[in-house]
Amino acid sequence: MDGVSGDIMVTSTNRKCSAVTGSARKIKDNAADWHNLILRWEKLNEDGFNVAAYIVNMRLSQNSQLQLVDQSSSPSSPSSASAAPAAPAVGAAELQDECCKLQDVVDKMVTVVKKMEQLMTSQRGIQDLEEFQFGPEGRKCPLFHTWNTKQFKLLSGVLWEAFSQELKLKQTILQELAHTETSDLCMVYLSCWLHQPFIPPQIRLTLESVLLETGHRPL
Fold it and tell me: Would you say 199 and 166 are in contact if contact means Cβ atoms under 8 Å apart?
């Protein structure tokens, strides 16, 4: 996702709001964690795309080799047929190795999404506490600039839902990519992996709005 750059470290120097304690401090820390988790996701997405592209190239090359084997196995060329089966076996082992690399990337994405879910749960807990302390309408004054606690909870849910759906797509691509026979479908899978259809530009804006509201970005 363009526009998301640089880890945000939660330190005393970037807590510029006066009396940033309690709910406000937890929300601000959560905002920094969201930013850093999304950066982590983007790095994994890039790594996964590189592996997936390599797998696609291997599959297409393997299919081409098999077509050549079929042609060389014709009665007119019996000598070529005896030497042909060794090449696909080597390719299959290498393909399996690359699939394991992609599995590792997806496993790390699962961990990222689990941490995102924990942030969402934390935000819900803050909302419940606010309602217990101040009633169903929450506190009168905003914690930062204009947002109330409920808005942070809702946007955390939006972010988590987007990445959860994208993770499901990644898991589907992982299962299907190495078994795909046609180049067109391979390109569709690669395009889906790269462009992340469940993480549209609005998600980027959602994150930036959270960072602006909590003071991690200057207004």
Answer: yes
Running DSSP on this structure, what letter comes out for residue 8?
Answer: P
Name every residue whose Cβ is closer than 8 Å to that of residue 32 and which is 6 or more positions away in sequence.
Answer: 8, 9, 10, 216
* Cα–Cα distances in angstroms (integers) from residue 48 to residues 77, 115, 150, 192, 210, in the given order: 41, 19, 35, 12, 27
Q: pLDDT tens digit string along 10-59?
A: 444 444 444 456 888 999 999 999 999 999 999 999 999 999 999 998 88
- Residue 3 is predicted with a pLDDT of 53
In a domain, 197, yes or no: yes
81 assigned to some structural domain = no
Contact between 55 and 47 (Cβ < 8 Å): no
Residue 191 located in a structural domain: yes
Task: Give how many domains the chain has, as a whole number.
Answer: 1
